Protein 1
Amino acid sequence: MGNLTREDDVTKIIMAAAIFGMLTGAAFAQAPNFDDPAEFAKQREQLTASFNGPADKMYMQYAGEAMVGTAQYKTDAPWTVCFSNAGVNNPWRVVGFTNMTEEVKLHPEIGTFTHVDAEGSDDKQIADIDDLLAGGNCSVLIVSPNSTAALTPAVEKACAAGLPVIVFDRGVTTDCPVTFVHPVGGYGFGIQAAEHIIANVPAGGKVLMLRILPGVDVLETRASGARNMFKEAGLTVLGEEFTDGDNAKTKSIVEDYLQRGAIDAVWMDAGATAVAAVEAFEDQGVDVPVVTGEDQQDYLQKWRALGFKGIAPTYPSYQWRTAIIAAVQTLKGEQVPGPEWVLPQPAVTQDVLDQYINEKMPPLHYAMCGCEDMATYPEAWGGTK
Amino acid sequence: MTDAPLPAPAPRRFRFERHASTILLLASVALYVALVVIMGQTRFLTLDNLVAILGRSITLGITAIGQTFAILVASIDLSVASVISASAVVTSVVMNGDPAMMLPAVLAVLALGAAVGLANGLVITKLEVNPLIATLGMSLIIQGVLSYYYNNFAGNVPVEFQVFAYGSVGIVPFSLIFMLALAGCAWFVLRFSRFGSDVYSVGGNRDAARLAGIKTDRVVIGAHVICSLCAAIAGIYLASRLRSGAPWIGAEGVYDLESIAVVVIGGTVLAGGRGGIWGTMAGVIIFSLIDSIFNVSGVDAFVKQVLRGIIIVAAVAFYAARSKRPVA
Amino acid sequence: MSAQSLSQTETTKRGLPRINPVYVLVAALILAIIIMNPAFGEPTGYMNFLKRVTALAILSGGALYVIVSGGFDLSVGSIMTLTVIGSSMLASNDPNSTYWVIPLMLGIGVAVGLINGLVVSYLKVPSLIATLGMMITLNGVAFMWSGGAPRGYLPDTFRFFGRYNITDVPVITLLPVAVICLVVFGTMLWWGMHRTNFGRMLHAVGDNQQAARLAGVPVERVRISAFVVSALSAVLAGVILGGRAGVSVDIGSGFELQAITAAVIGGAQLLGGRGSVPAAIAGALALEAIFTLLNLLGLAQPVRLVVQGLILIGAVALATYQRKRSGR
């Protein structure tokens, strides 16, 4: 183990180099762009635009006219549909995955549905896709990427192997997939919630922004969209706090802010903890102000029961159905909306609140599932008739 | 000061533990083959697929090689996941798409790893803080500093550097060759070097090792430097694989607890002093095989978790049940 | 050894009081919070704080039993999750179900603690690995049971313990039920650890297992009981946290390390032999108070992590230093 003095010298050099490394790191710091005015404007327009496709099936609708031909992928049934899933680590993904498996049952041409679950790890999902390419015998590969940049090489590799690839939810930075299925997007979500707050809170009002966690593309854009709008409307943002999706933490944060002064509105980037935020007001004996949420049953029901001014923008889980539909169309060699299949993204407002509430469904069932027309509804989603 | 007599080599007799990891490995291979044959999915038995399985857990494998050193000296390192995140971020930020920055980035990351290992080792030996707490604390500190500066994927690695994760000789990926070479080096160090035998002595009985003239503190510090260096290399690999680094990728892969689990499944005793690198490699392959078995048989993600928990305990019980020593 | 620790308590009572630094820390933190935010001095302020910390405080009191006996219990967070998910599944919105759901959950807690204890005592799996396996398994079981998302609400009768405030109380205006629970269960845990024969045996086992065995202590039974107490307190913590926050799938995650941190801040010695329930509860208060204070200072999550890490290492290093100085 060398002698002592030399070791000390080495240590010093190492420390110096490490500090140098950290400093250079800080100097090169750069955030990916989550504040893109052009994309913001586009999504704002799409929120109110009309969509093509059957009027009663939102999961089949698409924005714009662009289509891609898939004649080269036409294959005889039975097919093996492979799906690499980022994970089912939150209730939204649980509902979505149920939508997907139920949709698969509607297509007798799908002989095998192979599903691999990466449990929320990029590293694992890349390995999963390798496994599927090596031995999966896939006719088509559906990918719900855990993160955008990281999964791009794996998707490119699948494309290079000649497989038709369908991507949905979070995207990838290559256009080699047949299509990328997604709803309007994060800005749209942020806009819907922010517009509702701006309409119901007088100028100068105080807004608390609660976010789940930093860094997820679709969540960052929700926040940046809303933040800009609050600034324009002259509302004061009290703070942006991260809740980790944890109810207890959400409640503590709201309690702490309440102790320091009044809150006129709570903006949330996702609804899982909305009820905890509402309860914080209830428990303090304070009137519940405007609290935005998402289309979970527990929030919708709380909103109706207490009668506060709520709104539930959605990130519709029916896109999980659409992914299967796109795969089936591809294997039939039909025209598929692409290279992006943009789905409508409606918000649940006071006017339509009642039609989305179903007390027989689990508390974190996402009402905008587009699944009510399936024969197995509601049992497959954990509800009772 | 380096002339202290070599400690007496451990007596060589048949030890069940020496072979247990091989038995476990063979059992899981047999299970995999049986499952594939029963399910009529023999396409999973190709060479391509074998390579895919071996290549599943490179990050975990590299980390676990380092963790083996920490556990052999009767210490433990919970900071590896944070080090992986930190080094992946530093790699991609320093490179920032510029091939000319590849070497400086790697050097900076290795320096970072060495510094963390040194700090861990010093806190454990000089301040006599329990290793679990010391490295947990270090993990929180690194994670805090990292997420203070970054909250997303930052920077990107140049295409040239992605070769590390995506390049291959024939069908064998470079990264797999690299991991096996690293394991080979680690084995050589543990088996033939002075430091290696010191690691076993210190882990076996620190007081006896000190009395035998071994600078035990330095051995512990050395083991921690190696451990953190391996985690740093795993981070470099992960940056190359994901094309960028983000402050959560280490935690997301649960590399801290998983690396400890594979080391222990590989037969290295948590109390230190017994075990080795090839056991750890067997543990890593067992983990990859389990993952692949789950994928082939389409086990539900939640059932997977339950089984994984039971397997970890059962595998360790398989070694430990006959041991007479009290366990912590 | 048991006699010695007893006599220590006696001297502390009679002679000059040696105040555990954690109490000073808590007092200082609370004072700082009140200076920064006078509203904290109002009953709503400090009662909210106590209500918030109850789950962790009870949990760390229970976790201390395992720590004093010389082990770790990483499964407590997953027991909390299982309690909340399981209760919501079983209760199916029926307010009367609470009377049998909570006892049933306590029963499950006993079973989990027994398994942990048996695996550690008889299969000789180190507690770190045994309870890590249990943690992974129970999280998986909770997911399997619920299908990945909560399937029901917790009735108000269940949430009573964690959520309800008794109002119009003289002097303190309001009294959360959770705070009553904290006092009741805290006292029970204190009594079990510091006033019973079991508590003395626990210390003896943690201090030196072999010596305790020779002295006729039923080592296995004592260790198993410690795991059972820890699991039971985790169920209670789950009931209270579920009451406070409602159902979510990962409600208990991270609590295992926080409980150990709280116990360590309270001066508990890892690997056994030393620890005090009131100090562990004070450790939980200190941890939560630090978070509150950092929040008031407007310091973000990353800074919290760094501070938590430094305090963790600092607390243990300080304890070691004091022990060395007092020559023990």
Protein 2
Amino acid sequence: MNFFPDYIKALKAEWLKLRNSGMFWLVLIMSAFIPAIFTLVGLLQTESGITSVNTENPWRSLVVSCFQGFGVFFFPIFLTLVVIRLTQMEHRAGGWKLIEVQPISRLSLYLGKFSIAVTVAFVCIVALVLFSLLSGTIVMLAKPGSGYSKFSIPFGFITGFGFRLLISGLGILGIQYLFSVIISGFLGPFAIGLVGTISGTIFFGFRKALWWPYIAPGLTVTNSEGSEAGNFLMYYEWLSIVVMLITLWLGYQWYERKTFKRAFFKPAIRLLYIIVPAILFAVLFIYINKPVQLPAYTRTVIAGTIDTKEKISAAYLIAEPLMDTVLEIPVANNKFSFSTDKKISAGTYYFKAGNITPQMIFFGSNDSVFIKLISDGRSTKINTYGNRIPENEYIKNGDRSGGGYETYYLENFGYEMKPAAFAKEVVRLWKNDIEKIDNYKTADNLKPAPDFIALQKKLKSLYYLKLLDSRYAQWYRIYHPNEILEYPKSVDAIRNTASYYDSSLLIYSQYHDNVADYFQQKYKLSLSNDTAYISKLCAVLPAGGVRDYLIYNKLKDAIGRTRDSAKREMLLAEFLPVISKNKIQHQLLAQHLLLKSLHRGKPAPDFVTKALNKDTFALADFKGRYVVIDVWATWCTPCRVQSPNFERLAEQYTSPTVAFVALSIDDNKWAWQNEAAEKSFRVLQLHANDKNALGKAYGIEYIPRYILIDPDGRIINAQMPEPGDPSFEDILRKEIPGLASL
Amino acid sequence: MHQTNAYAIETSELNYMFRYGRKVVNNVSLKVPEGSIFGFLGPNGAGKTTTIRLLTGMLENDRDNIFIHGKSLKKNIPGIFESMGTLIETPSLYLHLNGRDNLRVITRLRKMDEKRVDEVLEIVGLYNDRKRKAKEYSLGMKQRLGVAMALLPDPSLLILDEPANGLDPAGIIEIREMLKRLNRDHGKTIFVSSHLLNEVERTCTHVGIIHKGIMQFQGTMADLQSSAGHGKLVTIKVDDTSRWKNYVTEKYPLAAMSVSNEFILPVENSDDVTNITRELVMQGIPVKGVRTNEGLEEWFIKMTSN
């Protein structure tokens, strides 16, 4: 077979046939239409001056947005039209009979024409890229200030993206080519293409049937980054290739013989021509569509980069609810690569580095993840790669399940329903949610590992269990005080999935908050009497993590509230031994000791700050004067509400013996400077050099916080009321001699 | 197996049946000698085009019973098309391309020199219209372009399906002369189908008549005439039959008159025609035209009407 020379001849002939065929205009319109609109919008729009860390290269976002609508709708329609035009030439010329009586194999004719269709699609993509870049250039030249001049064109990204878009169009080309060759009319193949595309946009909207070949370009455009797992192609792109191959095969068999009977049924052996490819297709289809579960790693590795101005020496994995440090990760040059033998139970942890807002990641033993953390002090972005991609994506996107209106109805109006009806509805919604968790997969067709799925199911089930056991049960008690609430057996499925005694779930706030509520309602625990609450807990709950946590929670709250050191010690003496975990005992003790260290008369912990004029101030610099401190931040609304009250007092009680200090813990120094400069000059505006150290030393869990220190640097009151409260002024007048006369 | 090279096209018991079971081609055994102009004659729907589609491999044929220049068609597709030029039914034109580009498509498929394009355009008389789009062509021009496409590769065998379709009389004559010239000067074998008997009579050396899918006759033109038997007629056109009626009917009692000023007389042979014509001219009757009708027409109609 001299296929190749024939193929080249066919290609050249097909290329010639494109002349005057209108293909040029079709490509031009399809590729220029969207960029033209973007150019107009770009020129008319007034630029927003806001840039954040999430702002991408504008060239890249321009190209991607030019392709957005194109991929879902225009591209499939375009491919349909291209194929129809190419095949109609032959149908109109009398059913291919001219080219088929030339000394050229039909295979090369068939593939030659298909290749031209692919080429036209390619040209259209290239043209669309060029037009979108042209659009960016026009906007850049017309508006020198726009973002385009600050970035270079990401050619690497565009090449990969364009290539994958072409690949994802191959399936559509194959299908349309098959039908356009068989059906000699224009309407038939066009209707097929239109129905395929429109049903595709609907599937795409619902994110259902993502294997549908007409969606592939839309998916490629939506996931313009490509595979997060580093695969060459996305699964739907592979699928597109498979669809193309099978349709080319079927189409060619038909084309060679012109009837289905001769192509596939006569002689009987030709049945294999359809059966074998069909089986092959089915196998590949299932194989490619099957969600992939990334295997666990042999070691536990956490690596990554932290892109921020701050120099970071260590990062931490922190677990709720006690904020335990699970893992300390050394960081050098804002890069880290750390492997550990420590047993870490797979779960959601906070990844904390420097002053960057902690980010949630899913991690555990035998995981290998790579973290890319980017922060500019205002916004933060985290991307997690490795074997926990789907888990982390799930966490990042939040829990998208939940029935919205339906759960809202149950939560608020469920009392109108009978127990069986309520249970039925709960079970139905629960099943939906469980199914959603089971079917969760990323754009890359990655599926979370079973441990993650099991965890999510437990958490989800707990929500529904709470609806049954506390929300509805409570109503029932009120409306039917003499009856015993009985649910149908079907709710057992939820009960078997969720548990109120699963301490491994305590790292999830959804869990520990729910658990506290549940037991409080179930055992009618007293909210006003700490001792009664804890005693009852100890009586009804078995020892273990969940009980420990609940006691801890209550004790921590009680200790924070109790000013009297002796009373605190009594509480601790009574209940610490009940807690089985040393760590929790230590934490409660530490809290108590911290509060004790902040008692009246104790030396105030030192801090270092900078003033607006860059002078350094330490606590020692105020020796000989009373110091009234307002710990605040620009982003803290309650702080700003109280601020004028604080300033009013500073102006009223201006005296050489008192210093009024506003101590900011802002991360964003600019924000502080701008705002502080506007404040009353009677208040000394300072900025804490190390907010974490300050917070730890003074036990600052929330702001605003007001502290009064005497001239010897001893604490008078570490937890003053708010300055709007008259007692604040009372304390000042009482504690600071001579102030009352001012 | 198959040795003979004497036939440009040979089929043995060619059959074709459409899905609904009617045999459109029924045991057709064609023998088209090399160097002949073979007229493939039959009324519309006789199976001519289906036969041609089989001969060009356009229709799938299960049996290996078509031989072109002695070579199996089935086994030699598509290489066998090197030596064939075809025009099947209406010409296959790319209407959006101009005449020249239509031909260039074929030169590309055959990897030929493009110089040939202009030559062929000259032959079919489309050179001046070469830059017009095919969709602007008249029916006759399209037909000529179709012929040009068949001629383009300079094939040794031309298969033309109703090439005169849609042509005006001048065009028909042009095509006829062109076919004769190609046959005479270039030694090409031409297989041409037609439903017009006198077209075939005037052009072809050999004839095959097909009716209802069955070959009714196959042989040289001379064979055909002898098969058609006697009872030939001569038709003589004059200025006004009523003027010469007396003389002619007296001399030739069997003469009949047609409405279009013609006398129709039975003759035995061509000498009779000469003698009658001379006689009339010598009588001073202005003979406007002489046409012999050798009875083929009737024979053909009879053969193809049942």
